[in-house]
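Task card 7
Instruction: Convert sequence to structure tokens.
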Amino acid sequence: MHICVCIKQTPDSSSVYIDPITGQPDYERFVQILNPADACAVEAAVRLKEQFGGSVTAITLGPQDAEGALRAALAIGVDTALRLWHPQAGDWGPFAVVAASGACIQREVPAADLVLCGDKSSDWSSGIVGPALAEKLALPQITGVMQLHALREQGQDTIKLQVTRRLERGYREVLEAELPVLLTVTGDLNEPRYPSLPAHLAALKATIPVIDPLPLIDQADGAEAEETTLLEIYVPRPRPRRIAAPDSRHSAFERIGEIIAGGAAGHKTRLVEGSPEELARALVEFLREKGFL
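Output:
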């Protein structure tokens, strides 16, 4: 079984800093990592290879520092890594990226039985690449996969995939698919393994071929205009904290204390014991005292 995984190098969310004055991100602080959802896709591909045999190829489009994501995939267990890059690719939109990746898969991995992608990236989170790549490769697709099981029936060479995909409002959908197929997986699919030191060292020494994607794609795809207009970047604002209104019957000093304590000052707990009638009478008196009745 030949598996192709499309990955991307993205900034670690904990390293992203937005200047509150200029509103621009500080790119020098970025710590680049393998996109979490893509890491789960790589782990799933390696597990399938260990179960049924075959090979795994990882592909990314990016400059030279994007090789960090490919080497992370090699350390997990990927067999081959390919990097696509052209100086003009920095301005490409998602559909031009799909055209380049799809052409590379058709040329370099022509017999791909399974294509895996992360459902979204941690930087732009558009979720376009996976479905558009399935259309480019003319493959059936299943998106939002959060559970994956592969089965091979006795006496048969065909492999069937049983997947659970995430739907809106917490619903789940269980599907069965035959190869070839394209899956986009979520970051909850699995827990990527921690590679051993020899695997890390071998990945650092590996030679990663670089392919110019421009000759592989149509001019119409390469000349795609940017469809996203970035208006503003800002740090998510925290939710305002609710401040309980102080009791107007208290003194100014006591009301200030209640405001500082967030309404927790002056609260008391009272345990009431007795018959059901006595408990009901005590509850009514409490509600009347607090102004609810």
